Amino acid sequence: MVLSACARSVDVSYGWRIHCNVIKVGLQSNYFCQGALIELYSKCNKVSDARRVFDGAVDLDTVSWTSMISGYVQAGLPEAALEVFEKMKKLGHIPDQVAFVTVINACVHLGRLDDA
């Protein structure tokens, strides 16, 4: 809950401290914590930190995938967003409405209106 609050308030410095505590108590493999960390770092424009958590995640849910996609779009990296989306689909995860809207935004940023 605290990580989500940090993401909503774009408070990455407090989020880093919470992340340290997550590691200290051994919750870094908890998919709720992983998703919240990906969302936090993505919303705070720390896409490399989000990707590090994303790549180390054990089991990603749709929110985590969408947060990573959105983080890349917000960082001006729509190609990377589409790569994550393709990997999401390839691994059998079903995108939700938010994921589709985010991917449409990535396509528009790339001028790929037909794909959008």
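That was protein one. Protein two is written in the same sequence-then-structure order:
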Amino acid sequence: MTALHHNEPIIRLACFFAVLLAMMLWERRKPRRALSLPRARRWPANLGIIVVDSVVLRLVFPVLAVGAAELAAARGWGLFHGLNAPFWLALPASLLILDLAIYTQHVVFHKVAVLWRLHRMHHTDLDFDVTTALRFHPLEIVLSMLIKLVLVTLLGVPAVAVMLFEVILNATAMFNHGNVGLPRRLDRALRWILVTPDMHRVHHSIRPEETDSNFGFNLPWWDRLFGTYRDQPRDGHAGMTIGLEYFRDRRATRLYGLLLQPFLNPASGSTSAPTPSNLLP
């Protein structure tokens, strides 16, 4: 076990809690929107699901992404190792490819019915704040990690790049899910290099055409390149409704309700085809 592998959990946890606390304080001091539910109704489940996800990952996978990268390096597996690519090239290339993979995966999880069934839990949050960034079903997390392990091994991504990518992705996801706003000019400039809260909030709109836009979590370039970018919500950030039209049940804020969501009723095959039967009983 290398020093990086040994210290990775400490580094990731420290960065995670630092960004989470900073965003919570920012939201409390200057919220972008009024919340429809008290934090005490939503936060226990949204924070609890990240604990469940972490435990499930450790039980399912003998090694996670950094461990897979180190194993690939030791065995000489992957494209970058086969090409003997220099670190200065492999590092930025890995970050770009991994980010593109996350964007692509996100689009696919919206378009394929069985995958949307898992992913929709992220969109059934009736409010949008930093804890929404943590709200993913364990089965989606397992599939995401499996995709990441395969990609890291096939590419031969350096272990440092994997850890750096995961720290950046976690931090930017919490940032752009924040119930905060930036000055308009700063937001317009920043969203050329980073997904901002106002940019990603559009993705959580109740309007299907807005839900199917702005898929990026970190870099905004893929949305612009592939035509999925939407500048602003039709109803404005203060007036827009968060969530899914066919899933408005406030009882779905409890942890067990989140875990059961994919299995309760037939899921719509598309975010643009809401069906009232998807409401929780």
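Residues 266-281 have pLDDT under 50 and may be disordered. Keep this in mind for the problem set.
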